[in-house]
Amino acid sequence: QVQLTESGGGLVQAGGSLRLSCAASGGTFSSYGIGWFRQAPGKGRDFVASLSWSGGNTYYADSVKGRFAISVDNARNTMYLQMNNLKPEDTAVYLCNDHNLWGKGTQVTVSS
Predict the structure, then answer these.
(1) For a disulfide at 49, which of 70, 77, 84, 108, Cβ 3.0-4.6 Å?
(2) Which DSSP letter does residue 85 get?
(3) CB 5 within 8 A of CB 25
(4) Mind giving me the DSSP string for 15-82?
(5) pLDDT tens across 45-55, in order?
(6) Which CA distances in Å does 48 have to 26, 73, 75, 83, 109?
(7) What angle do CA 87, 92, 95 make, to 5 degrees?
(8) In this predicted structure, what is the pLDDT of residue 28?
(9) What percent of the chain has pLDDT over 90?
């Protein structure tokens, strides 16, 4: 079964950029939609961005539209989330998702 592992999180000042990676091991991403979610302390898991594996269509939460970009490198079986102009409210654990599979998450902290 495919396993997902996130990386690239860290501490960034407001206005900075960060690129998260989600590597799929033990196989490739499924034919279902893949994407990113985030969960802030004490809050629920929110949708961030997703893409269609077959069609390449992308979708974004209103809060990140224009600042974040989702992409995938098929040769490396890796999905990315480019985050620009980061804001303190972006602080959360970011998790990658492949239909019914989830990674453990990577912490993103944005200081003001």
Answers:
(1) 70
(2) S
(3) yes
(4) T--EEEEEEEESS---SS-EEEEEE-TTS-EEEEEEE-TTT--EEE-TTTTTTEEEEEEGGGTEEEEE
(5) 999 999 986 66
(6) 25, 19, 24, 11, 16
(7) 125
(8) 85
(9) 81
